[in-house]
Automatic annotation (TrEMBL), chains A, B, C, D:
<dbReference type="Pfam" id="PF03860">
    <property type="entry name" value="Csp"/>
</dbReference>
<dbReference type="InterPro" id="IPR044543">
    <property type="entry name" value="YHJQ-like"/>
</dbReference>
<protein>
    <submittedName>
        <fullName>Four-helix bundle copper-binding protein</fullName>
    </submittedName>
</protein>
<dbReference type="InterPro" id="IPR005560">
    <property type="entry name" value="Csp_YhjQ"/>
</dbReference>
Amino acid sequence: MKTQEMFTSHPRNIRFDLDQLTACISACTECADSCTVCADACLGEEKVQMLVRCIGLNQDCADVCGVTARILARQSESESLLLRLQLETCATACRICAEECDKHAEMHRHCRVCANSCRNCEDKCRVMLKAMMTER
Amino acid sequence: MKTQEMFTSHPRNIRFDLDQLTACISACTECADSCTVCADACLGEEKVQMLVRCIGLNQDCADVCGVTARILARQSESESLLLRLQLETCATACRICAEECDKHAEMHRHCRVCANSCRNCEDKCRVMLKAMMTER
Amino acid sequence: MKTQEMFTSHPRNIRFDLDQLTACISACTECADSCTVCADACLGEEKVQMLVRCIGLNQDCADVCGVTARILARQSESESLLLRLQLETCATACRICAEECDKHAEMHRHCRVCANSCRNCEDKCRVMLKAMMTER
Amino acid sequence: MKTQEMFTSHPRNIRFDLDQLTACISACTECADSCTVCADACLGEEKVQMLVRCIGLNQDCADVCGVTARILARQSESESLLLRLQLETCATACRICAEECDKHAEMHRHCRVCANSCRNCEDKCRVMLKAMMTER
């Protein structure tokens, strides 16, 4: 994974386990992509009216995940408190979005796949949060 | 303000005071712009080495404010919990960034102006958070 | 305007007219906000099916305008070719989105206001492009 | 790849080869991540003064790639002209950023890896552009 290779040559001391950090960044960007595709696929469905809430939450989740990836990627002057709040916000956005996507998972495979991306991203954020709890 | 005019024709019932909501969106986008310019101006300074932390926090704050504006702008299927966490994250990013910008405010006017944008955005987010507290 | 005040203390020589530059950044961020609100308001309309194309173009336009504002805000190591392509892309996104919003302007005031934001943003981008043409 | 699986259940007819489309989206998001990490790693280097241009271009490239991924992900109401301009802008941002990263590739492995991400993303954008040329 390219991000991990880059962190090994990062001039500052990265205080996270690199596997956990890069897994979380990957999960965030993958979830952002999934949510953007899911919002668009929902928008293209005939019964879009039923999917309005799914589209709205997909958009919010895509935005939050995208920014979480960027803040995780910036380790030179990382602020614990901000990172913790961002991870908490992201885990919550992912959980809410997954719950909504689940409702349409039987009908729409894009919702089923998206729910999986959201769950995976929530997990990876919580792993990071747990690692930060026990930090010192 | 265009955003406010748009909310008055929004099909759903907006549960926020429109003045507060649009003031918060404006403060977020203005702060995002200020932080992006400040990061870039710091990067162009001769003594960039002294401003590394300011640049990093400016970037984080610009990203968080930008997404906060978008989530605030989406009122059709807004989720209270997500919005509250996002506003909390944004207020914190703004406070941390303002404190760092303050350190360079004497030397660099762009840092002084940026600190003001951050403080204003933190305030507007806290007004929204307070309004949400007393919601029910 | 805060962005303009910041550019006057920017350490590098800004090669644009500051009024034009800051007007273009403002127009981009305002248009991004308008498009995000319009997409959300359309999504909340009963006849959302009729507004699918409007929502899709609003989202694209919001994203393109947001990034254009950021690239314009970074003047320390600005690249003419990239900026020109970005402004051209943005002007086009705005024109296409305005044309779609116009179709719903009678019915939905949010579309009418959004079309105005898009037109204003297209204009400001074209002013910048023209200024860059005559650059040397 | 999740995005590809999602496109196979997309309600609209996707007019692109799904392998090419998902490869381009992946390349854009990977490049966005790489550029964000590289900007941050450069910012953390002792001789940050030498890397100012690299940081600035990394930031622009990260933003452009991120938005390109989103516009590619929205296929329900995709506009050929906008997509073509966006891909052209992205390919150019990647080329310029790769050229700058190359200058520091001997000294900094993060710049070497980032240059590779940029080249890969430029290639994938050009493949898409070529496919669009021969469209009809």
